[in-house]
Protein: IclR family transcriptional regulator
Amino acid sequence: MESTTARKRTVPGAQAVARAASLLRLVTASADGAPLQSLARDADLSRSTAHRLLTALRVEGLVDQDEATSKWMPGPELYLMGTVAASRYDVTELSRDIVRSLAVKTEESAFLSTRRADETVCLVREEGSFPIRSFVLSEGVRFPLGVASAGLAILAFLPDHDVDAYLERHPELEERWGRAHGDVPLRRRLQETISRGYAVNPGLIVEGSWGIGAAVFDREGRPEWALSLTGVEFRFGPERLPQLGRTLLAHAHQLSSRIAGSRRQVAAGSAASSARTS
Structure:
């Protein structure tokens, strides 16, 4: 199979598209907007190149710039595109009551994240009632697979060859996210996740902020989403963690079943429509 890097070398204009797409992802991951300097740094671009691309995206309505702060934020065209794409990809409406139930029963903040290539993207956040909260995750925030608990849960249940390929593509994980994300410790945590059924992030992103995540599967058994909980460390102690894990797994299983059922209904409806017109 041709690699992404090879395609970028051979497809005319692919590099410019990839750079623009990287900026779009960074802009949408910043709830309050992002300054040019941080966008250029995170996209590994010069300020002038980043500004030129953002200006072009603004002309097309894909990003906008706040006049008061000069921060860049998603534009109106992204919303319009998103509403069209939602009918095919969006599972948030199927999941909202399940995420809410998870937050109510555990009193912790609950989330739905989706897999997007080598990352997870948070789609839904539901606040728990416990007054001390973690704010590591919110809608639009992205993490590499294997870093946050949602991505660790998804990565753990991918086929072994996909895990190997992912780790080969991302040797920078340890340098960027710490020793626990090196090849050996990360593989150990993946095995622990499989044995336990859910992933645990013991404050590896922000000290004192813990998270647990459980994979949500599509009809073919692929881990395409994850439910997760985050909170302060003392709320995830050894006495309470297994109970939280059982509750999380039950909700993840419920959502997996609901997603599979909804896809079967869509398939049945399409088949019936084809039969009527044939």
About this structure: The radius of gyration is 20 Å. The mean pLDDT is 86. The chain has two domains: 4-81, 90-265. The beta strands are 63-65, 72-74, 109-116, 119-126, 142-144, 199-202, 209-217, 223-232.
